[in-house]
Design goal:
alpha/beta; Rossmann fold; seven-stranded mixed sheet; two-stranded antiparallel sheet; globular
């Protein structure tokens, strides 16, 4: 049976909707685009190989594998980032950190140095560097496989010359300080891990999710190291679990930082704390 691109999108969307998957139409379009490498506006009949591959993609999605992992990439800050099972799928709310870092760095008269702790796919660091053409940055992650993904994203975006990626336990071993320090640590508490959606629980790396009993263990590690990592003119841009915003910032205030402000994501949740050295 032959099927057009538009017909395939409608069919896949209906299948996903019947399975209780949100944004079924959007996901159907993304899966069909990945298979056909064509815009839906240019309708044509799917080749047999494309139809077979699309059916495989749909079966994977019905098993709750995230679309980003099925197609191999996710858009973040209007850039395409490769993702794998070794990295978190970049989320729109994390763009709040990029927005705040760029706004802060506008006040610099010269280039800024950027550090991304727990870089994963490299989306935070590389998004900032893509906007500030003279800046250079370092991404740190304990997972070497994740660093390989970040390096491939830097290559794809033409940012290899201005970025480097190193294996490390947060800031341990770093001997320099930075003007912009970005961090999106794991912040899911032990109780919350059991409540995660299957797309997250089954397919995203637990190491990048689990924040300990109260969700704050990684923040405690970063707080103890942060003061030597941030330059006097610099700031720390920290992604938050909104219910624990005050508890999180208190850890850094105890280590010589002051809260400049919180920034909300598009849903109105406290998502980023901007902290400076006292």
């Amino acid at each position: 049976m032959t099927e057009t691109i538009q017909g395939a999108i409608a069919r896949v969307a209906q299948t996903l909707r019947a399975a209780g998957i949100d944004a079924a139409r959007l996901e159907g379009r993304l899966l069909v685009e990945a298979v056909t490498e064509a815009s839906p506006s240019r309708d044509r009949t799917l080749a047999m190989e494309e139809a077979q591959r699309l059916n495989e993609f749909v079966e994977r999605r019905l098993r709750r594998e995230p679309v980003a992992l099925i197609v191999g990439e996710r858009e973040f800050w209007s850039l395409a980032f490769r993702v794998t099972l070794d990295t978190l799928v970049p989320r729109p709310e994390s763009e709040t950190l990029v927005q705040e870092a760029l706004a802060w760095a506008k006040g610099f008269e010269n280039a800024a140095s950027v550090l991304d702790l727990g870089t994963g796919s490299g989306c935070l660091l590389l998004s900032v560097l893509s906007e500030r053409r003279d800046d250079r940055g370092v991404g740190v992650d304990i997972n070497r496989e994740a660093l390989a993904v970040a390096e491939s994203n830097a290559h794809r975006l033409g940012l290899t010359e201005r970025s480097r990626f190193v294996t490390g336990d947060w800031g341990t071993g770093l001997m320099e300080s930075f003007d912009v320090v970005l961090a999106n640590p794991p912040y899911v508490s032990d109780d919350e891990l059991a409540e995660l959606m299957p797309e997250v629980a089954r397919y995203e790396p637990r190491l990048a999710l689990a924040g300990g009993m109260d969700g704050l263990d990684p923040y405690r590690h970063i707080a103890r190291q942060a003061r030597r990592l941030v330059t006097p003119r610099g700031a720390l841009f920290l992604e938050l679990s909104p219910p624990r915003a005050e508890a999180t910032t208190a850890l850094f205030e105890a280590e010589g930082f002051r809260l400049d402000h919180y920034a909300n994501d598009l849903a109105g949740h406290r998502r980023c704390a901007v902290l400076t050295r006292r």
